[in-house]
Amino acid sequence: MYDHYAGALYGVVLRIVQSKEYTEEIIQDVFVKIWNAAHQYDSSKGRFYTWMINIARNTAIDYLKSKGFQNELKNQPLPDFVYNSTELSTTNNSSDFIGFNNVLKGLEVDKQELIDLAYYQGYTQSEISDKLKIPLGTVKTKMRNALMKLKDLLKDYQ
Amino acid sequence: MNTKEYISSGIIESYILGLASPEEAGILECVMKNNAEVKAAFEEAQKTLEDLATSQAVAPPADLKSKIWNKIQQEQTTEEVQPAVIRDIPHVKPQQDIKLQQDIKPQSKSSWKTYAVAASVLFLISAAGNLFWMSDQSKTKDEIAKMQTEKKAQDLAMQKMNQKMEMFSNPDIQMVMLKGVEKHTDSKAMVFWDKKTKEVYLNAESLPKAPEGMQYQLWAIADGKPVSAGMYTEEKDSKTALSHIPKAQAFAITLEKQGGSTVPTMENMYVMGEI
User: Fold this and answer.
1) Do residues A13 and A60 both lie within one domain?
2) CATH number, residue A114
3) Looking at B78-145, which runs of residues are DSSP E strands?
4) Of the ranges A124-128, A145-149, B113-117, B260-264, which one carries the lowest mean pLDDT score?
5) In terms of domains, do A83 and A136 share one?
């Protein structure tokens, strides 16, 4: 199981926390969680892989939102991390991201931003609606369109 | 909202991202069970995000795997050993015991203890792993079985619908609406009378279920006289002709003893309709 999914989950977490050091710590938690919660996995609520991805995402996003991490960020030269992280995750120059595949770049900028906020930063839909100043219903349909487009991109990719 | 609108509302994506409200999630889970199109869209959206994760995979450091194993093992040794895990795999356990006992004899006290702990930890891990995959598999099997029964039920309902549709659209079929009489105003039934073949079909699904030992009997009233037009069973509903009736001015249904009566029990009449 580890060999099969570790790379993908590692990629997801790395993209969220943007640091190899933290990712390594978080991914350990992720696998321990998966291990301990495996009996709670309910196949009627989704596929196993998706379930694991969501555990990885949630753990990483919780980490990102946790106080210690936020304080650390305050000491960094970038004052508006949330805004800049959008830039980072789409154009990342950091050495942590060498060789990092970036399929999302093939999407239009507004779709990239949407996926980035919801998927990698854990924004709720109403938070996205506030931030991007678009109605809630539009957020949902746009999200769907973004994923449909992404699906096409991934098809070419494989 | 139709299926297409529901799917394109983006609710499925919200759900997968964990952003749907509990109400929305509840509705979607329910809809998915009954609507293959929604279910397919759900699978597809999951697949897209899985493919995204796969395509953006990053090789983790080589030592990460062993770090994780250590962590899991630590957790398992600190937590109380769950006896249930061992009980669930009976034929593995005796071997394990024998092995441990054999190990005990030749070894010195301190080292067999270490081996025993190490062995039981390894065993626990493999047992837990087996259990997990087993339950995962049996869940999938259950799921498939459930879907198959659902599919069968749906096929059957569909077949029935089609038959009814056919009767509705057949110009030779005369439909006679039977309405509830005083005591049973809520009841209704429909007679389909093929004027060419003179066959009589009955749709009486909305009648209350007949009690044990009783059966609904259809009567054709021709020139003021009731003639038995056959016994109704749920299996025959709308698809098997109950009888041939050459002439009738009205139809009625009474509840009779199993097998039917020669004359209708008037106080047990449920519905009646004139042609």
Assistant:
1) yes
2) 1.10.10.10
3) none
4) B113-117
5) no
d(CA B82, CA A34): 18
Q: Are B16 and A143 in contact (CB under 8 A)?
A: no
Regarding pTM above 0.80, the answer is no
B56 and A48 in contact by Cβ < 8 A?
no
Interchain contact, B57 vs A48, CB within 8 Å: no
One domain, residues A85 and A111: no
The SS3 call for residue B252 is: strand
Length of chain A: 158
Q: Which of B49, B85, B134 to mutate to test the interface with A (most CBs of A within 10 A)?
A: B49
- pLDDT tens column, B115-151: 777 777 777 777 777 777 777 787 888 888 888 888 8
DSSP state of A38: G
Same domain? A37 vs A108: no
What tens digit of pLDDT does each residue of B152-161 get?
A: 888 888 887 7
Q: Which domain range does residue A14 map to?
A: 1-92
A50 and A121 in a single domain? The answer is no
Number of domains comprising chain A: 2
Q: Mutation target for A interface from B1, B14, B19, B85: give the one with most A CBs within 10 A.
A: B19
